[in-house]
Predict the structure.
Amino acid sequence: MQTIPIPHVDPLPLPGPVWLFTALLLVVFTLHVVAMNSALGGGIWTLWNYLRGRHSEHPYSRRLANELSQMLPTLLAFTVTLGVAALLFVQVLFGNFLYTSSILIGALWLAVIPLVMAAYYGFYYFSYTAEQGKGTAGCVLAISVCVLLSIAFIFVNNMTLMLSPSRWLEMYRAHPNGWNLNLGDHSVIPRYLHIVNGAIALFSAILAHLGMRKMKVDAEYGRWLVQRAALVFAACTGLQFLLGMWLLLAIPREIAMVLLRDPLAGAVFGLAFVSVIAAMLLILLGSLAEKPSPLVHFGFGMSLVTLFLMVCLRYLLRLAYLKPYLNLGTLAVRPQVSVIALFLILFVGGLATVGYMLLLVARSKKPQVHVASMH
Amino acid sequence: MNYPHWQLPVPGGMLIALVAVLHVFVSHFAVGGGFFLVTTESMARRQNDASLLDYCKRHSKFFALLTLVFGAISGVGIWFTIGLVSPEATSSLIHAFVWAWAIEWVFFFVEIAAAIIYAKTWDSLPARDHMIVGWIYFVAAWMSLFVINGILTFMLTPGRWIETQNFWDGIFNPTFWPSVVARTAVSAILAGIFGYITLPKQDAREKVARWAATWMIVGALVLPISLSWYFSKIPLFSQLYMNGVLTGVRHAVRGGVAFTLLAVAIAVVCGMWKPRWMRPPVVALLVVCGLGMIGAGEYLREFLRKPWVINKVIYANDVRAAEVETLQAKGVRQSANFLLTDDTASAEYGKNLFELQCGSCHAAGGYRGMNRRVDGWDAAFAADILQHIHMLRGTMPPYAGDEQDRKALGQYLASLNPPWQFNITAANRLEVGGKVFGARCGHCHTVNGNFRPLRGTFEKATPSQVQEIFPALGAMSSNMPEFNAPEDQAQALAFYISHEANLPLAQKPAPAEMPTGTNHSRLLPQTDLRQEVR
């Protein structure tokens, strides 16, 4: 039997404690997923409403598509920006796994770059032309959405492949030119569907939240938006349970057992379960109210909590997969204390600067407020 | 050896170069262009010039579309590409400088937010606030250049980091400051060049044209000063590459200077003097000049670092200097995780070694193709010369494998061309001798040139006296391969050397000292080959 090849860990020590990298990774990755769900889920929502709104009997759909069109490029910008940070920290802890799986699907992995550019320019094109309501704009948006869906698929392939060193050598020998996919892993399809469906669900929760704010300006339009968003959110969340179960069954049994027996993972899983049901009930109940209801805001908050818990669970699942090959606790560490301190100071300063700019925008009290304050 | 090698139709380094040049072109514009925008806006508002302000608005839209999308995503593209082509080096850079990248990311985040707000709020923000956002953009963008510059310069001049492994020693390395100045100058030039893309047709045309030309000229004045400062700080081996021995370096220097001078000439003539001449074809030419300037600069920066990707730490083929001795002792098959075959006696193994060890810079054919370089080599000669490979011109890393690996790779290299067969006559003896010299000696020597010349050894020697030395070559120096060419080729070679070494010379050439490229080879002590031959 072939031995399983694992590239050795970098000879340089980790420049900071594992817990810090883990915390930063979980936080920035959660933020990245919020932005990504908004760009992908938002793209799907916009496309549907744009196509629907081309008929005169659906003016709200048209209005919503126009409003969302202005947000899409910015949402994608922050998806990428926050994704870069996640990519940075994941390399520190799991670089030897991630580089290998990336090389194995190298051709597709590198294709992500031109694909993101294409989707991004497509979003910009749509944002400039959406108001005219033409078919070309719809086509461009549809292409952008499909491109984003394909990028998500490539990411799922890489993120699952990095967890499966036993598949690497055979795959490399089959196609050393990087034209591989990890479809032999049965968890890829349910995981992909889980993520795409989750993106639609989360953006629906965001829309319900935004719709509440719209109700204060235009009650009827706001209510229309909240009710639709709540329904889609509930439907997608229901579907998410099924997809989640499929995913859990598709994960190798021994790894699923590691996860289920781990008290921390069990607690996270349980909490996520409770919070998502709470989010669903709160948003549904809130959407039935005649007046703007704080329940929707709470529900939206709970959906974010759920997302964070799912990100943590995903991390614990990764550790379970890599347990035979990696023990983060044994990695050599030599913290670069002064630089870490500088980073934290600049990080706070950077957030304050962005906050200050948003304040300037808010003070000018123009429609751009909503676009910018999304982030 | 640690990671699988991604097989590409072109050398992996080419892919990095392509992505990097395009990214550097746009990202330096992102820095200079931000400064250009906010100062132009400030000027327009001060002078109450509505048409100039209108230009700023249009330019900021173009600026955002180019830098936010192409600039930012191609930057991520470099991440992806280096991880795929040089995972070992990427991993080490991450371990050494993840916090620098994290800090750079903070600036990048602020930069993106500011760029979006700046481009969107021309009509809604008060003038003062809008300019504040513009200034925030520029400071964040320049700071991200400042931080990344530390990592980029580290790769050529790690300085004291090699001993201390201290973060600050690595970032503020010997070429940090000159490179910051040079990159800032380049940013100013590109701000001027790109400023013409949205040049107004009517009002403000002359003002913008002269203003953009000023940026280019100022940048072009600072650039040579900062570059000469930079070149005075680069390592000795890099400085030697600059002395003209390597054609690639020569072309890059000439190209870079030519593109920059042409751009400045256009700025003076069509920007300053006759702004109405700044037509779209001229602007297109300027953009080409800018791209050429960046391409030459990046090529030079990469080439001067050969054979390293991180000087003294990791070679260009992603092999760690510290691992070379082990690989030479135990062989690649003991260390490589992802070989395509377990049969180390097969021809496939040799091909696999080539891809794994040479593929980041070379392909079998095409650009930097090995077929041209090894034409005339037989398997034994190739296997032998591999252990002296770092002696060639200093640009190659030492061969990291044992004798069995060298034989397998030598076999593969020899298979790239049909073996040489000559019908040597008195008429073609000199020409054949020249070809044999090129294949067997010319990679390390010239006869009368200034690179390890042989004239001193063979002057006044007859062809038969020259040929008498051939069997002893392998024993003469540990850096010389055994001579094993067929008898007819040996005769032609001896004839050629004797002929060339006895040609009358106008003046005595000044021999060049060349670096050996490594100080980690177990097999090969560092010696001056030229002196030994003499």
Chain B touches chain A through 67 residues (CB under 8 Å). Chain B has three domains: 12-315, 323-414, 429-533. Residues 50-85 of chain B form the longest helix (36 residues). Chain B has a mean pLDDT of 92.
